[in-house]
Recover the amino acids of this structure.
């Protein structure tokens, strides 16, 4: 249904693809992976014809309906959540307008007309509203939300409504760009189960390793400006990539030994009359060889040891009778909570349930109305927010900022850590004042790791990180000797770190003294997600 051959694409003076090829057949489930900036979203733009490649062939089956979920949603008018999910307020009128234009131009046999007609038919199905409600419930909406204006909700909830519309249309080829970014764990599990049984083909970009492991059967990696195909899920891809590298490296080394041997013979005997012809034949043999390029080693997680933080008391932080409200919106009423030294606690629950607020109360960065927050003995607290950028000296370079945070850190160690978090070469000399929001977030994360507190509170620390960098962070935090409380929707990250789960919902906090699997077992969260698939 989709074929890309000999693709060449440059953007901003940088070559992203050269002689790259990709094929997606009906029913395929494909992950597109590569470091940030490799060209994943650009490839989606080429497939969707919003970008034009420099060279190459991009062919789509004329009968293929393509659905696309971008990372960010477009501004909305006065559509309700249900109207977004059914497409009746904006999508259907736009499709009707385009169909009339194509009919007027006599272009009724081309792929654009066929696709627009298929989408229009899907959104005019008599069951479209029932389908949309089912999708919305699965993605975490309550029935009382259906009539709300979508623009009054957060960007994450708006994205869910757009995702629901795509699933209602059931495209033949579904392009998903980071589909799990705005989902809580229960809705993520629902989407995961839904896509496992999806009848169409999937091509997705994701930094969620566990999500890809559960769904995809192929991985295409953007490497050296090519699209390299692997069979299996993401974990299988990692194993195969390592095997290919070892085989390629062995072939390269063997050829280099052969060339060296031939060259040594030629150098030794070319001046000897009786051996001169043999020497020349050795040189010609070198010329006839099809040279094997030295392979680049696959990028691997960077391993470094977080310095031991100062030892704190047995109770890291305690909340007693906390009342917290934003105006008339009561978030917590009489909340009691105790976090003990050495615990690695993940906060889970629906979006908007109060997880980030609870983390801010623990950090002391918001004022609660009643109750008491007590820090433990010798507590050294660090709070990592997704939007934290005010702790940077805007006149320091990236490297200087890290070295100032940990005077005992050697410059080569700082460079290594910065490189693993995607600050490379000249980027470490950029002033922090010119960094993007994502770069500032990553730099603050590094500062916590090189000079760690003994109580570390982290809100979505894997945001803006690619999979390899997430793995670097996971490995570092596994060796962290302090107390960790964090929020994350990355199941792989949670599985490796959490030994306690706090489920936050409707002002209540329920503790589960075990890891993520224990929480799923006790709450039946996986069963709930499956049940939502069959709900009417």
């Amino acid at each position: 249904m989709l074929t890309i051959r000999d693709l060449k694409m440059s953007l901003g003076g940088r070559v992203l693809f050269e002689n790259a090829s990709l094929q997606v057949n009906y029913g395929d489930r494909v992950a597109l992976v590569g470091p940030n900036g490799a060209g994943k979203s650009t490839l989606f733009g080429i497939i969707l014809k919003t970008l034009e490649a420099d060279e190459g062939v991009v062919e789509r089956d004329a009968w293929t309906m393509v659905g696309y979920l971008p990372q960010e949603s477009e501004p909305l008018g006065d559509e309700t959540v249900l109207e977004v999910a059914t497409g009746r307020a904006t999508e259907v009128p736009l499709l009707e307008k385009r169909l009339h234009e194509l009919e007027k131009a006599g272009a009724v046999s081309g792929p654009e007309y066929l696709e627009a007609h298929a989408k229009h038919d899907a959104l005019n199905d008599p069951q479209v509203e029932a389908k949309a409600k089912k999708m919305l419930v699965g993605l975490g909406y309550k029935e009382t939300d259906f009539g709300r204006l979508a623009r009054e909700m957060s960007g994450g909830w708006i994205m869910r409504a757009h995702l629901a519309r795509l699933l209602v249309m059931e495209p033949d080829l579904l392009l998903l760009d980071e589909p799990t970014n705005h989902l809580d764990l229960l809705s993520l599990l629902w989407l995961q189960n839904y896509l496992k049984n999806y009848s169409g083909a999937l091509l997705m970009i994701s930094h969620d390793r566990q999500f890809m492991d559960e769904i995809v059967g192929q991985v295409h990696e953007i490497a050296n400006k090519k699209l390299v195909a692997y069979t299996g899920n993401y974990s299988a891809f990692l194993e195969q990539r390592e095997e290919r590298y070892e085989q390629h490296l062995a072939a390269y080394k063997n050829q280099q030994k052969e060339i060296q041997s031939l060259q040594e013979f030629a150098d030794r005997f070319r001046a000897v009359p009786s051996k001169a012809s043999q020497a020349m034949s050795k040189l010609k043999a070198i010329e006839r060889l099809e040279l094997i390029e030295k392979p680049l080693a696959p990028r691997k997680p960077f391993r470094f040891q977080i310095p031991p933080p100062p030892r704190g008391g047995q109770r890291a932080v305690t909340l007693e009778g906390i009342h917290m409200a934003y105006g008339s919106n009561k978030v917590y009423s009489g909340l009691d909570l105790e976090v003990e030294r050495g615990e690695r606690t993940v906060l889970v629950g629906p979006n908007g349930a109060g997880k980030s607020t609870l983390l801010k109360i623990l950090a002391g960065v918001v004022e609660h109305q009643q109750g008491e927050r007590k820090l433990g003995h010798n507590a050294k607290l660090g709070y990592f927010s997704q939007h934290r950028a005010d702790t940077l000296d805007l006149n320091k370079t990236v490297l200087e900022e890290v070295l100032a945070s940990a005077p005992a850190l050697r410059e080569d160690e700082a460079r290594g850590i910065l490189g693993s978090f995607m600050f490379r070469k000249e980027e470490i000399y950029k002033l922090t004042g010119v960094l993007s929001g994502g770069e500032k977030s990553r730099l603050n994360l590094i500062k916590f790791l090189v000079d760690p507190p003994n109580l570390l509170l982290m809100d979505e620390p894997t945001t803006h990180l690619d999979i390899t960098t997430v793995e670097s962070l996971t490995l570092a935090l596994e060796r962290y000797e302090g107390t960790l409380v964090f929020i994350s929707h990355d199941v792989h990250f949670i599985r490796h770190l959490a030994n306690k789960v706090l489920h936050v919902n409707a002002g209540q906090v329920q503790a589960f003294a075990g890891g993520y699997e224990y929480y799923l077992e006790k709450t039946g969260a996986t069963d709930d997600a499956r049940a939502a698939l069959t709900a009417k």
User: Anything to note?
Assistant: The two ends are 32 Å apart (CA to CA).
